[in-house]
Amino acid sequence: MSGIPISEREIQAYRNDGAVCLRQVFSQTALTLIETGIEKCMASPTPYGRVQSKPDDPGFFFTDYYLWRYFDEFRELMYTGPGAEIAARLTDSSTIRYFYEGLFVKEPGTVRSSDWHQDQPYYNVDGNQLCVIWIPVDPVDSETCLQLVKGSHLWDRWFQPVFFASDRLLEGAEERFEPMPDIDGNPDQYEILAWDMKPGDCIVFHPLMIHGATGNRRTDRRRRAISTTWLGDDTVYGERLREVEPEIEGHDFKPGDRLDVEGGRLSPGLAKIRVELIVILSAANDPGYQRFLPTSFSNGLITATATPPEMIPITPL
């Protein structure tokens, strides 16, 4: 293991509360990769880019997904950053698979909030050993920070997923999941976790945690952040709605199948942690996606390598 400072207290906070803030675990090199990648994405969004704010919003709220497919910076962060070790230690997993990342940019004065939601109902992944790492590259205070309902990952309740931009439920959500409770209207019933954060800090949370965020009320700085989602030992393909996001296509997975789609590489400093990429093939016909497919790509499979991590260069796939 590489010596990322995670205490037993922090591990227990993640498991019991559903979220923990880790301080100064992302280096300036990692933050520069993220910031550079964000600006490239803002200038040239992927097919998943969406403006979430309304036309009359004085600010601007933009999201995008699956950035490692299009921008080298996010792929390098996936391989060289601390995410794999953080995820392995907090989920107590011997194997970590990288799923995808999300981008969340709220320019100064943005009114549009991020609605309360859980992540796991959106996609076809079951299991408990998975986590999301939320990484801001700008300072955030507890009001602008991601906010999470303490302990909600232990409620054994799944809530209806909603597309933010159109304010509509995913197709089939009413049949399978229950409506989100009124968190804002009943503040005395819920304990909210939020932190003042500096670049280098991150929040790690379970994807069944109810979470959301206000707009960016600050007028003097942006609020740029990414989230990265990691899958541990017990994660399998799960049955979901008729409509999911992201959608795993091109494979005949059945509920309970391991998501062994694409082999990966050892993460630096993790002799026993193998990082594997989960390929989401919903954009398989998109030219921008095809541009990054490795030459060894065949039917969605890449042969895993046993080459020592320090010998594996980070090159465009």
Textual characterization of the structure:
- It is built from six helices and 17 strands.
- The radius of gyration is 19 Å and the shape is globular.
- The chain has helices at 8-17, 28-43, 72-80, 83-91, 173-176, 287-290; strands at 19-22, 50-51, 61-65, 95-106, 114-117, 125-126, 130-136, 147-149, 162-163, 168-169, 192-193, 202-205, 211-213, 223-231, 236-237, 265-266, 274-277.
- A hairpin with a 4-residue loop joins strand 9 and strand 10.
- Helix 2 packs antiparallel against helix 3.
- It has one domain (8-311): Jelly Rolls.
- The model is unreliable at 262-274 and 277-317 (pLDDT under 50).
- The protein is an alpha+beta fold.
- The strands form four sheets. Strands 1, 2, 3, 4, 7, 12, 14, 16 and 17 form a nine-stranded mixed β-sheet that branches. Strands 5-13-8-11 form a four-stranded antiparallel β-sheet, with no helix packed on it. It has a two-stranded antiparallel ribbon with strand order 6-15.
- Helix content is 16%, strand content 22%.
- It starts with 7 loop residues before the first helix and ends in a 27-residue tail after the last helix.
What topology emerges from the helices and strands here?
Blueprint: H1 8-17, E1 19-22, H2 28-43, E2 50-51, E3 61-65, H3 72-80, H4 83-91, E4 95-106, E5 114-117, E6 125-126, E7 130-136, E8 147-149, E9 162-163, E10 168-169, H5 173-176, E11 192-193, E12 202-205, E13 211-213, E14 223-231, E15 236-237, E16 265-266, E17 274-277, H6 287-290
Parallel strand pairs: 4-17
Antiparallel strand pairs: 1-12, 2-3, 3-4, 4-14, 5-13, 6-15, 7-12, 7-14, 8-11, 8-13, 9-10, 16-17
Helix pairs in contact: 2-3
